[in-house]
Amino acid sequence: MPTGACGIYWDALEAKDINTLCNLTLFSPFSPRQLLFHFLREDVLVDSEARCLRRWQNDGWEPTDDPLLEMVTVLYLANVTQLYPIGKDIVGVNDLKEGHFFQGPHALKIEPLLRRYGTDVMGFKQAAEYLEGEPRIMADAAYRLLPFPRIPLYYLLWGGDQEFKPRISILFDRSIETLLAADAIWALVNRVSTALLEGPGIDT
User: Fold this and answer.
1) Are residues 109 and 183 in the same domain?
2) Do residues 75 and 49 share a domain?
3) Confidence band (pLDDT; 50, 70, 90) for 204?
4) Mean pLDDT, rounded, for 124-142
5) What is the pLDDT of residue 2?
6) Which of 35, 65, 157, 168 has its Cβ near the most Cβ atoms within 10 Å?
7) Residue 59 within a domain
8) Which CATH number do you get for residue 180?
9) What pLDDT, on a 0 to 100 scale, did the predictor assign at position 162?
10) What is the pLDDT of residues 24-81, one digit of tens each?
11) How many whole angstroms separate alpha carbon 118 and alpha carbon 52?
């Protein structure tokens, strides 16, 4: 999505009812034109009047430069129109209707994660738990991470050894493709993966 397109979605967001959005997304109303949501392990304020995201810094809500998160957040809020069940139909990227998008330059960027955690399953667990991930009984280590309260991402790691190469899979609730275009899903995964790479002790 071109950066300039974000303004269109800010326009759409301003036209929406805050209370309805909160019911659909589990965001919290903060003011008539502001919403609060929990991103992984921190609170983020959506300020539709100033058209920016804010984080709590220096005893106040300061604008934050996080373009991937801003784009996906505004697109999500502009698109959501109903309550979708979560945890019912979990699919891989190739199972999405626009699965063909995630090839070549748009393949999910898992190589940095493999380099960091492919032989360090415990380190992966620590990073996922630092981001308030919920463990799942899949793979050698698997966690459900919540970049948005009702949009989970599932990260599965199979650690490598002398015989097998490490593997990582990222799964989604199928409803994500109704809420986000393929490029926005790609951006969201990149943002969450970056947070995993930063790991404990570094604010995301």
Assistant:
1) yes
2) yes
3) very low
4) 96
5) 44
6) 157
7) yes
8) 3.30.310
9) 77
10) 999 999 998 999 999 999 999 999 999 999 999 988 999 999 999 999 999 999 999 9
11) 36
Alpha-carbon distances of 163 from 4, 67, 166, rounded to whole Å: 48, 40, 10
Check residue 3 and give its pLDDT.
43
String of DSSP letters for 9-58: HHHHHHTS-HHHHHHHH--EEEETTEEEEEETTEEEEEETTTTEEEEEET
Q: Which of 37, 58, 79 is the last residue of a domain?
A: 79
Percent helix / strand / coil, the chain, rounded to 5: 40, 25, 35
Confidence band of 1 (pLDDT split at 50, 70, 90): very low
Domain boundary among 30, 57, 79: 79
Which tens digit of pLDDT belongs to each residue from 14-34?
889 999 999 999 999 999 899
Residue 161 pLDDT: 77
149 contacts 37 by C-beta, under 8 angstroms: yes
Same structural domain for residues 137 and 176? yes
Q: Side chain identity at 160, as an amino acid letter?
A: G
Residues 141-159 as b or e (16 or more Cβ within 10 Å = b): bbbbbbbbebbbbbbbbbb
